[in-house]
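Bumping with the actual sequence this time:
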Amino acid sequence: MNKSITIKNMDAYGISTAQRNSLRKDGFLVLPNAIPDNLLGQWQDLTYELSQRAATGDLQSFGTKNMHIVENKGINMLTRCNDLLGIYPDAVLNLLSSPSLLAVAEVLCQPGAVPLQCDVLFKHQCADSAILWHQDALHNRSFPYLNIGVYLDDAEEDDGCLRYVPGTHTKAQDICSLTKNYGWEIPGSVSQPARAGDILIQDMMILHGSPAKLKEGVRRTIYIEMRSYDAIVDHGYQSREWAELRRRWMGLVKRRAKDDADGIPEGLGTDADEIAAILNRPEPPVPAAYCHEHMNWPNG
């Protein structure tokens, strides 16, 4: 069940100039222990519910078109669930209206930032769970474009945590050449562990991937894409109408946070009506860039 919780009034979350500069320079940034315990616990419970219902096939009420399930040794394992806004709307609005996420939107993305997507990934103990080196959403870099990972479980350095190549977010990379020559050991690449409750922010274009998870258990991470409304319109990949719906989604967030009345669109309807309109107009995301030519990587 979708348990409701109360978001207590909290001081604004502080993001320092050094942190902003680190994100600009390296293309990724960790905000330790950034999710309040009540929100973390709520999302751990909800995603456990999702995985259990996937295992038993009891997903009719969720709409399985938004989920990816694989069978492993006779067990159904949920690996991804998209559009969490349509499944747990209150929990999504609570998460996005928390001080740390509002700060990421307003300080690291920029005023006018809106959520584009909110999904959850489940990384299971499996030799095939590696995610190859790639860059998300190549774009002209006129505006910040961020992917925000909210960690519900620990990501250990020696168990398939994210790997980055700092500084590669400023342009498209020759991924095929890099993977052919170096596999997982691209010069300058680093592993980035995280703990449950951390937020790991990355520029959408940084070169990143993650080796297989080989230890027992599952790692759950909520991913939220953020970009300014003006950037969506400028890029033109998605429609202006789609961008406007995301602006109204951010209006719901600000209303939930009782923050910045100027950022709430005029005539904003009920949460249920606005969310229905958002979900009824899906458009594809800006595609990621991978290389699938070299599967037998050295040092991998």
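The tokens above came from a reply further down the thread. The CA atoms of residues 176 and 225 lie 26 Å apart.
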